Amino acid sequence: MTGNRNDRQQNRELQMLRPIMTALLLLLAGALPARAEIRSSFLMDHDPEIHVPPTVNVISPEFRPLWLEALARPEADMQRLAADAIMRGHALGMAGLEEVVPRLETLLTSATSHPSARLAAARALVELGAKNCVESMATSARQFGSDLRQVIEPALAQWDYRPMREEWRARLKEQPPARHRELILAIRCLTAAGDEISVGDLLKLVHDAERSLDVRIEAARAAGILADHGLEADARALTAGGQRASILNRLCGVQLIARHSSAAAAGLLEKFAVDVEPTIAAIALARLIEIDPQLVLPLAAGAIRSADVKVRQLGARAYVLIPDVPRVAVLASLLNDPHPGLRHTVCLWLYELSRAPELDEPIRRSLTEILAADDWRGLEQAALLLATLDHKLAAPRLVELVDFPRGEVRVAAAWGLKMLAVPATLPPLLTVALRRTDARMGNEPQPSDLDVHTAHLLELFGKTKYRDAEPLLRRYIPKDVKTGRFSRAAAIWSLGYLHEGVPDEDLARELFGRLDDDRIPPELELVKQTAAVSIGRMKAVSQVPAMRKFFPLSTAGELSLRIRWAVMQLTGEFIPEPPAPTSGKRGWFLEPLGD
User: Fold this and answer.
1) Which neighbouring-strand residues pair with 56?
2) In terms of Cα–Cα distance, which of 418, 445, 420 is closest to 433?
3) Do the Cβ atoms of 360 and 335 come closer than 8 Å?
4) Measured between alpha carbons, how far is 358 from 412 in angstroms, rounded to an integer?
5) pLDDT at residue 30, as a whole number
6) Is there a contact between 207 and 234 (Cβ–Cβ < 8 Å)?
7) Widest Cα–Cα separation across the chain
8) Of 11 and 188, which is predicted with more confidence?
9) What pTM, to 2 d.p., does this model score?
10) pLDDT for the residue 7
C-alpha cells in the first residue's frame, strides 16, 4: 500500500512538474549551438544575386506632439494608447522620443492615474531605457501593486539598480512567506542582477519542503547560475536516494551544479546524465559536454537511444566533438531519426565532419548505404547531403528516387540531381518532366510537391543548357494556373540560359508579355522576375524601349531590381538603385492630418 501511495504521489508531482521541465528544456535548447540546415533551394532565387535593401520605417515627426498631447489628456484610454504608440515607435527606430519621458514619468507616479495607463507608461519607460527615472520607477513599483512590479522590477535588475537588491533579498526571507508571484519575481531579479550574496537564502528555499514546486525549482536554477562552485554538497543531500529521490529533488540538484566544473560535480553530473527523467539527463549532459566531451563518451550510446530528442541530440553532440569512423556511422543512422530537427542537425554535422580527410570516405559510405535503403527520412537527408558533397556516384540512385512515394524524397532527389548535374541523367529526367507536365495539364489529381519537384528538374535543364528540353520549357510560358508558380518561373529562367547571349526575338517578345501582364488576374510576381532576367541574359536589346516603361523605378523591390539588372545587361549603362522600400506611415494612434 505504501508503495502504491508513493507511486501516486510521484505521478502527481510529475504532472505538476511537466510544464516547468518543458520550459527548462526550451532554455537548454537556446543554449545549444544554433544550426542552419541543408535544404533544397532554387537557383533562380540567387542567379543573378539581387540584394533587396531592408525596409525603412518612416515615422512622421509630427506624431510626437500628438502623443504628448494625448498623454496630458485626462482620459485613461487616450493615455494608454499614446504610451503604447510611443513604445511601438521606439521599437521601430523613431528618434527624438526622449522628450516624452517626463510626461510618462508623471503618468507613472501620479496617484490619480488609472492602473491601465500607469502600466502602459511603465512599459514605455522600460522600452525607452529611461534609466534616469529609476528612483521614481522603484517608488511606483512599491506603491502601485504587483502588476506594475512585474514590469518595472526586471528592468531595474537589468539596469543594476542596487537599492532594490535589499528589497529582493528581504522578500526571500519574509515570514509569513511573500506572495508566490512576488517571490518568483524577486528570485528572477536577483539572478538577472548577478547577486551572489543571495545564494544562501536561495538554498534555504531549495531545501524547504514546504515551499511550492516552482519556487524550489526557480531558486535552484538561480543558485546554480549565481554560483559556479561550492554547491556539490547541497546537490548530494537532495539526491541521497539516487533514483529513489523525488523528481523535484533531482531536478533541483542538477540545476544547482549546472555551472560547476569540479571533479565532484562531474561525478554527480554523470549520475544525473542517466536519469530516467529526460530534463534532468539533458541538463547534466549539456554541462558535461561543456566541461569535457570525453566525459560523455561512455554515456553517449545510451543517450542516443533515449526516447527524448534533446537527450539524443546531446549524445550525438559528444560524437561530433570527438569523432572517429565508428562514431560517424552511428551519427549517420540518426538521419533516420523521427524528429526532423535532429535529422537536419545531424546532416549538417556530418557535412562539417566530412571536411576531415579521414572521415570523408566513411561518411560517404554510410550515406550511400542509407540511400540504398527505403526509410524516407534517411533517404531525404542522404540525398541532400550527398549532393552537397558533390558525390556524383549517387546520381543513378537519385534518378530512381524521383518517383519515390514520399514527396520529401522526390524533392530532395530532384534538387540533388540538379546540383550534381550529371549529363547521363538528363534524358531520363526529361522523360520524367514530360510525363509530369502532361499529367498536370490534364485533369488528373497531382501531389502537393509537384510544382517544387518539377521546378528543380526544369532548373537542371537550364543549368546544363540542355537543348532537348526547350520545347518542354516553352510550354510553361503561357499563364496557366495548372502549370504552377515555381515550375513556370524555373522554366523561364532556364530559357534565358539556353539562349544566353544569343537572343530569340519571338521568345523575348513572349517573355516581355509576361513581364508586362497586369491584366486580371495579373501575372505572378516570380514569373515577372525571371522573365526580366532572361530577357537581359539573352541580350534581347530589342526589348529595351519597351522595358523603359518601368522607369523610373519606384522602390528597390525584388522585381524592380531585376528589371534594373536586365536593362544594365542590355545597355551596359549604370542605373542608380531606386530608394529602399518604406513602411510605417499608417495605422498609428492619432496620425497627423494629411500625413
Assistant:
1) 582
2) 418
3) no
4) 27
5) 56
6) yes
7) 92
8) 188
9) 0.88
10) 55
